[in-house]
Automatic annotation (TrEMBL):
GO terms for cellular component: cell outer membrane. The keyword Protein biosynthesis does not apply. One of its GO terms (molecular function) is fimbrial usher porin activity. It is found in: Cell outer membrane. InterPro entries: Fimb_usher, FimD_plug_dom, PapC-like_C_sf, PapC_N, PapC_N_sf. Gene3D superfamilies: 2.60.40.2070, 2.60.40.3110, 3.10.20.410, Outer membrane usher protein FimD, plug domain. Belongs to the fimbrial export usher family. Keywords: Cell outer membrane, Membrane, Signal, Transmembrane, Transmembrane beta strand, Transport. The keyword ATP-binding does not apply. Residues 19-155 form the PapC N-terminal domain. GO terms for biological process: pilus assembly. This is Fimbrial biogenesis outer membrane usher protein. The lineage of its organism: Bacteria, Pseudomonadati, Pseudomonadota, Gammaproteobacteria, Pseudomonadales.
């Protein structure tokens, strides 16, 4: 390390620059060689050092940097990769460990190595930074690879009553493989209960992105989407642009309030698409199954006491805006109890003017046609308007029309407002309805919703909203909600109320209030009250995150219909191989509920099988940290830990983007260093990326030295290697710390008086990997 106090002994001479007063150094016990090494500037000692890397003001993580015998930084390919700097053309043929002359390619670059802060700061011109692929150029990203995967999400809800019981199971499974940029997936959901059992095959398809054309091909049992019309399930194929994929595979967020530990089911077109178990209170579900944004969702909440509540969620075709791009597909209709005609779907959307987007599409069979148009605009400052219009024309039937308009406005002071109105004529039918006339008037005829929000203030976040919908059979229902949340110091407060009306009948009012305060760093105490009509329940809970992987919840509740205190306990475990959630609650005098959830993924690859606590997506990465077990790695999908083979999975990699993967150094054995703790994954869709962190086992040794059989070595003596390169200095009491001991190296000590000796010592053949350094006695014999 540098010796900044040595510069107290500088003489400034105009002709010779900065020099040390050698006589004063000798009086202080410092050698001339040490003065020569640090004469020009503070510098690192030769060898490898862990440093913090900053590029153009942005931190790029912790890396291992190599310094040469003169203390200068060796810029190699690993350092450039960590900093996101492109490899100079002149250095393309250099070997992996060679030093690269960056200044010859980018002369205006500035490089500063600071040993006191253990940091390296680089300022390079913009053209030296590695650019992201622009626009439709997707060919610059990694591609290829092979792996098989399996995702699972299994839930169980067991309820016991005084005079009976019920148990239900739900399993959402997804086997598949990635092969040469092809993505093969099969999604299905099974529901098993005492009343009925279901098995729904959601999708089974093969998909590939052709990077040069920025085009995606999907073939099999697919949900054929359309940018402006309701999609259909077919056996067939479709082509669409890469940027349109997110719009065609939307995952909608569903929110509500559960009175008790409840099972929530989500249906679309009378088919179960997702089910899970939620705790009492407000909940939010981000459905992992893609759903059609142009079709309604029905949410069914099964409470622990047997109560069943249903809520229809209107279609939200413009919620994600117009993504841009095209779609074209042909296939034979699935899930139809009547005919299964061939279907053609085509559409396009994109920007035509600044702030103006349009889209159009059609769906056609031999007996049905539908066309649609969509518009997105910014009519004035901080406003966003979206409008869609669709027509349907079944054979020998009346033409129908549907339309929806959404207007969102942001105001000063954190205020925002939104308005949505949708209208559907009595004769409008999507393809499924036209082929299977039920004789019943189903679906919404019209609906509207309005909302007002206020956030970003000291009083917290506030929102109020309401809406009304009318079905084709004339039934009218209305909902309204009011929500508020704030953090006052370390106290969190939340309150909400929902009203539900159908016709002239009051279907109920649901009120929720909660507060929580911290009890230490990872523990919180909370209290809440839920009320519905003349029935209320109050509860308290204690939550603690014991570690990165384990958390628990203890709670008790009081019901207005039962004076007894009803206990509840829950445990969540983020294991390296899965996520586990267990909840038990007593819901009455002789009633109790047990809920369990197990979810995760498994990946089969050339090196074996690796398990993951998260669902494996279309694009992922296999991570290797040598053969180290239990190392924590931060990934875009969340933290993971390496298995006994040193492997883990980054389950979700965003295609055509930079994805940061960071090894947590504190989870490494103390005898291990990484060449670079930060990795960047740049992968095309469907690629099986592999990211290996180079593990270097470092031996650190603390020597208690003696001059032969005599006294300890004099402090401030200089330790050098066999080549005479500076290594470190002798500290008070004759202590020498070697931060990177090399077994084949021979170490010598040079005293301030110019005499020298050779160090001799013996170390254990099996060092403890959890010890930061080893200790032993060394004798220095004169040479």
């Amino acid at each position: 390390m540098a010796l900044p106090w040595a510069f107290l002994f500088l003489e400034c001479r105009a002709s010779d620059g900065l020099t040390f007063d050698l006589e004063l150094l000798r009086q202080r016990g410092l050698s001339e060689e040490l003065a020569a090494y640090f004469r020009d500037m503070p510098r690192f000692t030769p060898g490898n050092h862990i440093v913090s890397l900053t590029i153009n003001g942005s931190r790029s993580g912790t890396v291992q940097a190599r310094f040469l015998n003169d203390g200068s930084l060796c810029i190699d390919t690993g350092l450039l990769e960590a900093g996101g700097i492109r490899l100079p053309t002149a250095a393309a043929s250099e070997s992996q460990g060679s030093c690269i002359d960056l200044l010859s390619s980018y002369p205006q670059s500035q490089i500063q190595a600071d040993p006191q802060s253990a940091s390296v700061t680089m300022v390079v011109p913009a053209q030296a930074l590695r650019p992201a692929a622009a626009g439709d150029d997707l060919s610059a990203y990694d591609s290829g690879g092979f792996a098989a995967m399996f995702n699972y999400d299994v839930s169980m809800l067991d309820t016991r009553f005084k005079d009976g019981s019920s148990r239900s199971w739900t399993a959402l499974t997804e086997p598949g493989l990635n092969l040469g940029d092809w993505i093969v997936r099969s999604r299905q959901i099974a529901s098993l209960g005492q009343q009925a059992s279901r098995l729904n095959a959601l999708e089974a398809y093969a998909q590939r992105t052709f990077a040069d054309q920025a085009t995606v091909l999907q073939v099999g049992q697919i949900q054929m989407g359309n940018p402006v019309l309701s999609g259909v399930s077919v056996d067939g194929f479709q082509l669409f642009s890469e940027q349109a994929l997110g719009h065609l595979q939307q995952r909608r967020v569903v929110q509500g309030i559960a009175k008790s530990q409840a099972r929530v089911e989500i249906y679309q077109r009378n088919r179960l698409v997702y089910a899970t178990v939620v705790p009492p209170g407000p909940f939010s579900i981000d459905s992992p199954a893609p759903v059609d944004a142009f079709a309604e969702l029905e949410m069914v909440i099964h409470e622990a006491d047997g109560e069943e509540r249903r809520l229809t969620l209107p279609a939200s075709p413009m919620a994600a805006g117009l993504s841009g791009g095209y779609q074209f597909g042909i296939g034979q209709l699935r899930h139809s109890r009547a005919a299964s005609p061939w279907v053609l779907s085509a559409g396009w959307s994109g920007s035509v003017l600044d702030g103006l987007e349009v889209g159009g599409g059609l769906i056609a069979t031999d007996s049905y046609q539908a066309t649609g148009f969509a518009l997105g605009a910014q009519p004035w400052t901080q406003a966003q308007m979206q409008w869609s219009l669709g027509y349907s024309q079944p054979l020998h039937q009346e033409r129908g029309m549907q339309s929806q308009m959404t207007l969102n406005q942001q105001f000063a002071g954190g205020w925002g407002a939104g308005l949505t109105y949708g209208l559907q004529s009595q004769s409008y039918q999507d393809l499924q309805q036209a082929l299977e006339p039920s004789g019943r008037l189903e679906g919404l005829r019209d609906f509207f919703s309005v909302g007002l929000s206020w956030q970003g203030t000291g009083l917290g976040n506030f929102s109020v909203g309401g809406g009304q919908s009318r079905t084709r059979n004339g039934q009218t229902s209305s909902q309204a909600n009011l929500r508020w949340g704030a953090t006052l110091g370390q106290v969190s407060l939340n309150a909400g109320v929902e009203w539900s009306l159908r016709g002239a009948d009051d279907r109920g009012r649901l009120l929720y209030m909660s507060a929580s305060v911290p009890l230490g760093t990872n523990r919180r105490l909370g209290a809440s009250t839920r009320a519905s009509g003349d029935h209320y329940r109050s509860s308290f809970n204690l939550r603690e995150q014991v570690s990165d992987t384990l958390g628990y919840r203890l709670s008790g509740s009081h019901d207005s219909h039962d004076p007894a205190l009803l206990p509840s306990v829950g445990v969540s475990w983020l294991a390296p191989f899965s996520q586990v959630q267990l909840d038990y609650s007593k819901t009455g005098d002789s009633a109790r509920t047990l809920a369990a959830n197990l979810r995760g993924g498994a990946l089969g690859h050339a090196q074996g099988i690796t398990l993951a606590p998260y669902s494996i997506q279309d694009t992922f990465a296999l991570i290797e940290v040598g053969d180290l077990h239990g190392v924590k790695v931060d990934t875009p999908s969340g933290p993971v830990w390496t298995d006994r083979q040193g492997r883990a999975i980054a389950s979700r990699i965003t295609p055509y983007a930079d994805n940061r993967v960071q090894v947590q150094p504190r989870s490494l054995p103390r005898s291990v260093d990484l060449a670079n703790s930060l990795g960047i994954v740049r992968a095309g869709r469907g690629a099986v990326s592999q990211l290996s962190f180079i593990v270097e086992r470092t031996r650190r040794v603390l020597l208690q030295t003696l001059q032969g059989d005599g006294p300890p070595l004099a402090d401030s003596s200089m330790v050098v290697d066999a080549n005479g390169s500076f290594v470190t200095m002798v500290q008070a009491g004759g202590l020498i710390f070697l931060h990177d001991f090399q077994e084949e190296e021979r170490y010598h000590v040079t005293s301030p008086d110019g005499s020298g000796c050779a160090l001799e010592f013996t170390l254990s053949d099996s060092p403890d990997p959890e010890q930061y350094y080893e200790t032993t006695t060394a004798r220095c014999h004169a040479i």
